[in-house]
Amino acid sequence: MTRTVVVTGSTSGIGLAIATAFAAKGENVVINGFGSADEIGTIKSGLEAAGGKVIHHPADMTKPDEIADLIATAASTFGGVDVLVNNAGIQHVEKIEDFPVDKWDQIIAINLSSSFHTMRAAIPLMKEKKHGRIINIASAHALVASPFKSAYVAAKHGVLGLTKTAALEVAEFGITVNAICPGYVLTPLVARQIPDTAKARGMTEEQVKSEVLLKAQPTREFVKAEEIAALSLYLASDDARQVTGTHVSIDGGWTAA
């Protein structure tokens, strides 16, 4: 049976890799994110060429009403929501005392609260079918902290708590809720924070890559977005039906120490 998969923040980076993996399995995919009409059209064409039926919804992840409409549109178009992947996220790097309040609010809204709003809308649909998969893309920063990332670390820790709570609530409805905790992936999000981190730490950008980012990962390699996508496919599968309420780290050994 063809499933319907909603992936937030999926017009680039990890989210696009996840959307591509599900499309290649022939699933219906609802992508979400910003981009020009031409850019979105190109992404949709690529996903459809991979094998799936695709629609794009432009919901702003800071706006609960638009998030609710994202889930409602997925359901009205394809008949439900079978897999929800909460991937949308942003970053800002700054000392706590200088951290802009509007940036704090925006990061908490997009990186944490949006997952609550999508789940709030999607869980009733999954309960009706007595089946569903929810995958929250957290971070190694859901488990450990780094300086100058107070909002991001707080939000990702919150995602783990939300994941566990939701898993307990839906455990008897055939729905699983899990979090993936990636280490550093060289996505546009990470690439954009390198200059800011360099400024905050008084380093060159190359030093940030080698001495800050990859220093955290014993393998000294970036995680690939496609590897996170493969893990998402597993967590969405029947083989993972008893995996729920937990996190899976894919961080090159970062959190082993």
TrEMBL record:
Q: Which GO annotations describe the biological process of this protein?
A: monocarboxylic acid metabolic process
Gene3D superfamilies per record: NAD(P)-binding Rossmann-like Domain
Classification via InterPro entries: 3-OHbutyrate_DH, NAD(P)-bd_dom_sf, Sc_DH/Rdtase_CS, SDR, SDR_fam
GO molecular function, a single term: 3-hydroxybutyrate dehydrogenase activity
Q: Which Pfam families match?
A: adh_short_C2
Q: Which residues form a coiled coil?
A: none
Which UniProt keyword terms apply here? Oxidoreductase
Family that this chain belongs to:
Belongs to the short-chain dehydrogenases/reductases (SDR) family.
* The protein's name: 3-hydroxybutyrate dehydrogenase
